[in-house]
Amino acid sequence: MAIEEFHSDCILPVSAFIICQDEKRYLGNCIESLRGFKEIVIVDSGSSDGTLKLVQSYIDRGWPIRLFSEKWRGYAGQKQFALDQCCEEWCFNIDSDERIDDALRAVLPDLLAADSSIVGWRVARRPFLIGYGYTPRHVHERRNLRLIRRGKGRYDLRQKVHEGIIPNGRVGNSSRGSLLHFRPLIMDEQILKENKYSTLKAEQKMEAGAPSRRLKLIFNPPLYFLRLYFRNGLWRCGLPGFIEAMTGAVYSFLTEAKIYQRCVMQTTPPVDDVAGSAGQRDAKRS
């Protein structure tokens, strides 16, 4: 990918902030989509794949990037560190594998000009589905708070995954535009990701004192699927949409199953009592 010199006729008073590690494959297009932002804060946690060289090439061409190296603090902690480095009035969180679409770029000036009672904006995200491409504009994930006034929100450091900004004030929903999420993982890789994230989610819930509930284990996965497939509109995306919704259900199942098994292990550790089990079976037969 050829990297152009940084030139922009419209400078937005926004600090975009990105956390990354070994994201050379995706980060370039993310940065390119931020053209016009006054500042781009990138916090790297130990890349070894050429990510740092890529970022430096943008810096050398005049892009307004401030690069930091920081030991991994967890998702929420790392993003809070990045947010703390931002200098502009507005701060925009974007991941390395995300890009701003044209509609969001067009509406950004209006969002930034909001009344001072609005401290942030939630933005939709559209994933890239293998075999389909980016979902249509009306088929997207729920909106998440990504644009926040500096000093008006912080991350909840107790969150291990799916971390979000806790705002100090009123938040609006952007009705136009979205982030494009480009990380096309084949199912082998996607399941590994869901396994990792479900472990973090289960640990987070248990640390918060959430008990194991059998009804949630039984009903949450199908409800998760139905929400993604029908309410979010993935049914419009054919078989790739079905796979995406099913993958979400797998994540939900793994999370609840891990909570259940961890709770059982705490109260009734497994014992390999072969003789006892055989004796109980003989007693039942007699």
Automatic annotation (TrEMBL):
Pfam family membership, one: Glycos_transf_2
CDD domains linked: Beta4Glucosyltransferase
InterPro entries reported for this sequence: Glyco_trans_2-like, Nucleotide-diphossugar_trans
Annotated Glycosyltransferase 2-like domain residues: 15-143
Keywords of this entry: Transferase
Molecular function via GO: transferase activity
SUPFAM superfamilies hit by this protein: Nucleotide-diphospho-sugar transferases (SSF53448)
TM stretches of this protein: none
Family to which this protein belongs: Belongs to the glycosyltransferase 2 family. WaaE/KdtX subfamily.
Name assigned to this protein: Glycosyltransferase involved in cell wall biosynthesis
